[in-house]
Amino acid sequence: MNRNYLFFIILLTGCSITPQKEKLISVYDFGLQQIADANSKPSKQQQKPTLSLLIAEAKSPVWLNNNTIQYRLAYQNPNQSYKYANSRWAASPAMLLTHHIRNSIAINTNNQIINTQDNIRPDFVLRLELEEFSQIFDAIDSSYVLIKLRANLINRDARTLQAQHNFNIKLTTPTANATGAVRALSESSKNLTKDLSNWLSKELIQTIEKNQ
Fold it and tell me: Is the pTM value of this prediction over 0.85?
C-alpha cells in the first residue's frame, strides 16, 4: 500500500501515530468554608446553655457512595444515572457534606460538637441520610442540581426520635456541564447547611426551654 495513502487513512480515522496523552481528571470539593465573625457572636451572658451533639457520618445509597459526579438525563431516561469521566469529587458527597455541616455548626452555634473519637456521651445525635446529590438535565443544554437529605435528631438519653426533617434543595446550574454541576452543588450544599443549622437550633432551643 502506498505510504502517502496509508497516512491519509490514519488522519481521516482520527488515529495518531504518536502516543496519546491521558486526560487530566479534575478533582473538586465545596471550596473554602466561611468562618463567622467572632465579634458578631453573642456574649457569654447572652449565650444559651449548651448541648453536646454528635453528628454521625451521613449515609447514602450504594450508587452515590463514591466520588463520581452523577447526572441524569430527565428528558431521555430519568431512572438512569451517569457519571462524568474526567471530573471527580475529592471524597464521596456524603463525606464532603458531613464535614461541611460539622464545621459550620461548630463555628456558628453555641453547641458542643463532638465526634466518636472523643469518648464522650452526647446529649443528642444527628443522623443524616443523603438520598440524592446529582445534576439533572431537563434538556440537552439545560440542567439543575438536586439535593435530598433526611435529618433525624435523636435524644440519646431517652433513646427517642426528637425531630425529623426532609430537605430538598434545587438550583439551576450556570452551565450544563461538569463545571456547572460542581458550582451549583457546592452552593446548594452551603444553602442546605444553613437550613439544617436553623432547623437544628430551633429544635435544641425548644428542648432547653422545656427542661428549664
Answer: no
What is the per-residue pLDDT across 116-161, written as a single tens digit (0 to 9) for each? 556 678 889 999 999 999 999 999 999 999 999 999 999 988 788 9
Q: Which residue has the higher pLDDT, 104 or 68?
A: 68
Q: Which CATH architecture does the domain made up of 58-211 adopt?
A: 3-Layer(aba) Sandwich (3.40)
Q: Could you tell me the pLDDT band of residue 36, with boundaries at 50, 70 and 90?
A: low
Q: Which residue is associated with the grid cell 449515609?
A: 59
